[in-house]
Amino acid sequence: MAEGGARDEALRRAVAEGLGRRPPRLDPKLLYDERGSRLFEAICAQPEYYIPELEMGLLEEFAAPLAELVGPGSTLVELGSGASRKVRLLLEALRPSAYLGIDISCRFLEASVARLAADYPWLRCEAACRDYSAPFAVEPPGEGRRVAFFPGSSIGNFEPGAARALLQRLRALAGADGGLLIGVDLPKDAATLHRAYNDAAGYTAAFNRNLLRRLRDELGAGVDPDGFAHLAYYNPAAGRVEMHLLSRREQAIELDGRRFRLSAGESIHTESSYKYTLGAFRRLAREAGWRPRRVWTDAREWFSVHYLEADTSRA
Ligand code: TRP
Question: In its keyword annotation, does this UniProt entry include Transferase (predicted)?
């Protein structure tokens, strides 16, 4: 398939470019193929990974005051919608007229949005398979106020400059009376973070190593996934959890006739998860043309859900 070939080419280039860097890194979006999306769903069900439970609790608890701020008949545009589970907590209270789910994992997305449409016959549902880490074009359905919904602290998986640029694109997408509902993980003690990103059942490790299986199976790369260990730790100076694939021995990854050497103990950085205080996130959002309106946190202040409105005085 020609389209698949073009995708493969872009993937090959991105992988070779990342492996050629020092320190080596791979683009986190490569984690989310169909198997990766399923593994991520399993991570979300692990007791150590506190984000889904806290966020769903907040969305449920504050759906009513949120609905007052947003008003009925809106169009919800969800980024990285995955299984489209979280949005279900909002639908009865919010009564939007339309929903658009955006995700890079196409088949996974389409199946999820089809289930949503079947369960909510009054809601106009659409799916757009896009890579939202780059500028993307979508035509959201419906005429109401557009509200971007970006749960799961996925904003933390972007470097701060890229996060600001993405928030700016969401501001343009939402328009002058638009809103943004976004889940943002808060800084907390290193031990809790360590447990969350190193679940005992090993799903996060499998998710991380899945990237190497993809290189092997999709790109025909010469790589032994078992030659790498999952490594995730909090880097307090950088304010982020870092996930790496740690080379257990001296080895090379072969791709298209090139050899990328790794020494024992060297690691490939695969994803970061930045943690933002309430103030730091508000600052970032303001710089991107958003005006903070409300924020909800759990009792321990582990997780936050912000609602922001387009700042029409500045952008
Ligand atoms: N948005 C999720 C987070 O930052 C993504 C994620 C899940 C993740 N598990 C991870 C990111 C492990 C890095 C490492 O929590």
Answer: yes
